[in-house]
Write a structure and sequence with these properties.
The protein is mainly beta. The chain is 0% helix and 52% strand. It is built from no helices and eleven strands.
Amino acid sequence: QVQLVESGGGLVQPGGSLRLSCQASGSIFSNHAMGWYRQAPGKQRELVAAIIGGSITNYADSVKGRFTISRDNAKNTVYLQMNSLKPEDTAVYYCNAGSLILGRPGNYWGKGTLVTVSS
């Protein structure tokens, strides 16, 4: 069984930065994709960024150049560095794992961490 625990969300002003972390416990392998998804009020959950292996990544167009996903396989942890945040980035951010295909969600989800971008 895999458990995912997110941390690092909070309130930040537009233009600010946050770093999300997702600690995985259980059988997560380096060839499994891990990703971040987000869901804003009244909207569907969407892919933000995903990573497979150590360095193959995929980003939503809306975050390219602002967000960076990274992974520490030794620590079973995936990070999302978010810079130049915009109000439209406000959402609950969920960690996902278990897929063998980059950009396709796996079966495991964290409970989410809220990111609010507001002045």
